[in-house]
Each structure stands twice: as C-alpha cells, then as structure tokens.
Amino acid sequence: MDAGPVLDRLASEMGLVTHVGAAGDRYRLNPLLAAYLRAERADRPQVAADLHARAARWTVVHDDAVPAVGHANRTGDHALLLDLVHRFTGALLVRGEHRVHRDALASCGDATTADDPWLALGSRTRRNRARRPCGDAG
Known about the structure:
This protein has two domains: 1-43, no CATH class; 44-138. It contains eight helices and two strands. It has helices spanning 3-14, 31-43, 45-61, 65-72, 78-94, 98-108, 110-115, 117-131; strands at residues 17-20, 26-29. It has a two-stranded antiparallel ribbon.
C-alpha cells in the first residue's frame, strides 16, 4: 500500500500531518500528536526500537543516509547499526554529517571502532576534517 494518498488525506482532512519540502513528498506530524506518540513510545521501549529499525530500513531503500543511521542508532541493534555505518560512512563524511557519524561510532564503541579498519578510517578522517577547513592544504 502506498502511504502517499493516506498521508495526503490526513493532511487535508484532519491536519494530523503537514506537507514539507518542495516536492511535497515529505510530511511532518502535528506537534501535539508527535508529543503524544513520544510519550507512548517512552512507555514501550521495544516497540520504539522496532519502529526505529523499520524506519532505518525504509530510509536505506531510499538511500537517505542521515535518517537511516540516526534511526539505526536508536534501535539497540548493533548489527544493523554497523551495517549502515559501513554503508554510509563515505556519504556522511562527504556531506558534512559529522555529528551523525560521531554518534553512530560512539554507539558502536571504541573497541569495535578500533578493530574495524573501515570504522577506524572513517573516525580518523572525520577528526582530521574537523581540524582542517576544506581547501586548506596544510
């Protein structure tokens, strides 16, 4: 089932979501509904983790690195997070999404990062870019 028509109806008839973005293919929840859902989620952490895992996998299909890694970081699923960090490290660093990358590596743990050459390289590259502005040859 395509969620677009359902979200369009929720936006136009009920005001539960609003269109955001130029293409009109992204939506934002009503702030009151979002607060209610966050409170519900706090009472059921496993449900929240499962929803974040589903959201991470959905954003992977759409090649959207930042939300994919962000959602994976909230799942508690170490294997999923490692998979997405491996997949998206280059994209995150090139796009300047250092905070997302740093947070994901912190969740992976120092031992995992040190033992994994790709994670160690990404971590080192991110730290070097943070110290030296683009275009600085020195």
